[in-house]
Amino acid sequence: MEHRIKELRASFGFTQEQLSEKLGVSRQTIISIENGRYKPSLELAYKIAKLFQLRIEDVFIFEKESE
């Protein structure tokens, strides 16, 4: 799953710490999401999209699983 979190965070002028505080998660969680080591829950993905005033589909790019 790809995403635009780092790009959006920068465009809003948020540090990783500021974003983590706004979302109620640790800075390490933000780092892990940005580095692709952690996939956020649907609830967290919704919070992220809402914070950036976007739809989830505009923040996260879901790729089809290989069959």
What does this structure look like?
- The chain is mainly α and 67 residues long.
- Helix content is 55%, strand content 6%.
- It has 5 helices and 2 strands, in the order E-H-H-H-H-H-E.
- The chain has a two-stranded antiparallel ribbon with strand order 1-2.
- It is globular.
- The two termini are 16 Å apart.
- The mean pLDDT is 93.
**How far apart lie the N and C ends?**
16 Å
Classify the helix fraction into a percent range. 55-70%
User: How do the strands of the widest beta sheet line up side by side?
Assistant: 1-2
Strand content: 5-15%
Class inferred from helices and paired strands: mainly alpha
User: Any idea of the CATH class?
Assistant: Mainly Alpha
Task: Please tag this protein with its features.
mainly alpha, 434 Repressor (Amino-terminal Domain), two-stranded antiparallel ribbon
Short description:
This protein has helices at 5-11, 16-23, 27-34, 42-51, 56-59; strands at residues 2-3, 60-61. By secondary structure, the protein is mainly alpha-helical.
